[in-house]
Amino acid sequence: MTKILITGAAGKTGQAIISALAKRGAYIRAFVYRADYRPRVEQVGAHEVVVGSLTDEAALQQAMQGVQALYHICPNMNPDEVEIGRGVIQVAQHASVERFIYHSVLHPQIEAMPHHWHKLRVEEMLFESGLSYTILQPAAYMQNILAGWQTITEQGRYAVPYPVSTRLGMVDLLDVAAVAATVLTETGHTGAIYELAGPDILSQIEVATLLSEQLERTVTAEQIPLDTWTVQAQQNGLGDYQINTLWQMFQHYAEHDFYGNANVLGWLLDRPPTSFLRFLKSVG
């Protein structure tokens, strides 16, 4: 049986992919940063857990021993993503990992967003690595709105740190996880770069309208000042690098919108990608 390693396994993306793989009967090894993350990944289907840092070569070597396929997720907005990617690729080369799947981001070519630009550098290293690779480039998740769900449902406020006219295309994390499971367990995806974007391109006003219809109460989209957002982000534990990076992302969204095309996602799923309204119905 193919043994699959997931790095960054304890986050919401890693857990969703483990769950999707478990439904396919795959054998999963999870790489997590802290020992207290072990129950999270075991609960969703991990068979083995290795605890360590993505900057620890010995821990990576242990995690990749006997592994045929690797799905690499770097912690979100990590300032060391390029160096982490280089290290993971090098260990994968030495371990003779047969397939390397990299969790990148939609439109990594945008230099104005550092966390996108860093992922493009890792993609470039994969091209030169000699490894059999597949790259997934997901859009922002629909699930991200759940961070403000209490405010949405109790106060009828959908607050965003960019103009409410900003048009974004989000993707359902469960669709992304389904695609990840496909490319990890099926052949024919070597050398592919797949853009994973949802079918709806919505202004934040349109998002609020759909929320209103689904919740059967008025929800209003409003732009919050970046200073207000920053205080909230600091209270939630984000550091200066993450906050500055997100500021740059919000500015890019405000000036240019941000969306992709859902055709590739639909082909990979062999069904229509999840719409934002369908996602809301699943939330309840």
Radius of gyration: 19 Å
What string gives the helices and strands in order? EHEHEHEHEHEHEEHEEHEHHHH
Overall shape: it is globular
CATH class of the largest domain: Alpha Beta
CATH superfamily of the largest domain: NAD(P)-binding Rossmann-like Domain
What number is the mean pLDDT?
97
CATH-level-2 architecture of the largest domain:
3-Layer(aba) Sandwich
User: Into which percent range does the helicity of residues fall?
Assistant: 40-55%
Return the domain count. Answer: 2
Q: What fold name stands as the CATH topology of the largest domain?
A: Rossmann fold
Give the biggest sheet.
7 strands, parallel
Class derived from helix and strand content = alpha/beta
Tally the helices.
Answer: 12
Report the end-to-end length measured between terminal Cα atoms: 38 Å
- Extended strand count: 11
Tell me the strand order in the biggest sheet: 3-2-1-4-5-6-9
Strand content: 15-25%
Low-pLDDT residue intervals, each spanning 5 or more residues: none
Description:
With 284 residues, this protein is an alpha/beta fold. The protein has 2 domains: 3-141 and 171-196, NAD(P)-binding Rossmann-like Domain (Rossmann fold, 3-Layer(aba) Sandwich), CATH 3.40.50.720; 144-167 and 199-258 and 275-283, UDP-galactose 4-epimerase, domain 1, CATH 3.90.25. Helix content is 45%, strand content 16%. The chain has helices spanning 12-23, 38-43, 57-64, 81-94, 114-127, 149-155, 173-185, 204-215, 226-235, 240-256, 263-269, 276-283; strands at 3-6, 27-32, 48-51, 69-72, 99-103, 133-138, 157-160, 167-168, 193-196, 202-203, 220-223. Strands 3-2-1-4-5-6-9 form a 7-stranded parallel beta sheet, sandwiched between helices. Helix 1 (12-23) packs across helix 7 (173-185), helix 4 packs parallel to helix 5 and helix 8 (204-215) packs parallel to helix 12. The chain is globular and about 55 Å long.
